[in-house]
Design a protein that fits this description.
The chain is an all-alpha fold and about 190 residues long. It is about 65% helix and about 0% strand. It has one domain. The longest helix is centred in the middle third of the chain and has 26 residues.
């Protein structure tokens, strides 16, 4: 029964079902455990594309054998990133830019962020370097799932506000990276 509930959660978040996030039974006491399971499964599966990427780097650039990250580091990092992302969304979504009807707890945002990790489980399909571009597709799907979830639980009127709230850190990172790349000195070393 618990497995069927977990598969139901994963299937509905993969479908980007906005009614799923409106249903309060998806935020009961056991929901945090389902979120933890989804985050842990997604982080463990992320080892597969990481290995494919490291293999691609080592073969393409003659870097030799590159050791993959340790399992403990992958799990701890994924939980820390989950907590940081939840904290960011809580502060920005409920304190800085709330809607008039926004009334959401930290736990509910944490569960939503955990549920949104469901598309990252599909990283299981990336077992070879030729499929590495699928990571972009699955990350966009993850972002869309998070946008839909945040839009519903924070009761935003449109998807634009939730898209800006969710995507602001990555957009700022890309802009920063572009400026850093543009400021690099080009030319030859004499």
């Amino acid at each position: 029964m618990m497995i069927s509930i977990l598969f139901n959660i994963i299937f509905k978040t993969l479908r980007l079902d906005k009614n799923f996030y409106n249903n309060n039974k998806n935020y009961n006491e056991s929901s945090i455990y389902f979120s933890i399971i989804i985050v842990l499964i997604a982080s463990l599966i992320s080892i597969i594309p990481n290995d494919a990427f490291l293999e691609y780097l080592s073969l393409s650039f003659n870097l030799g054998v590159i050791d993959p990250p340790k399992l403990r580091a992958v799990i701890i990092t994924s939980i820390i990133v989950w907590l940081i992302k939840t904290s960011y969304l809580f502060v920005v979504g409920t304190i800085l830019f709330p809607n008039k009807s926004t009334n959401c707890s930290f736990k509910k945002i944490m569960i939503t962020v955990g549920y949104a990790h469901s598309p990252l489980i599909l990283n299981l399909l990336i077992f070879n370097a030729s499929f590495l571009l699928l990571t972009i597709v699955f990350y966009i799907w993850y972002s869309a799932s998070l946008i839909v979830g945040i839009n519903q639980i924070l009761k935003y009127n449109n998807l634009l506000k939730s898209t800006i709230v969710v995507m602001a850190p990555i957009i700022i990172f890309f802009i920063y990276t572009i400026f850093q790349l543009l400021s690099l000195q080009t030319g030859t070393v004499s």
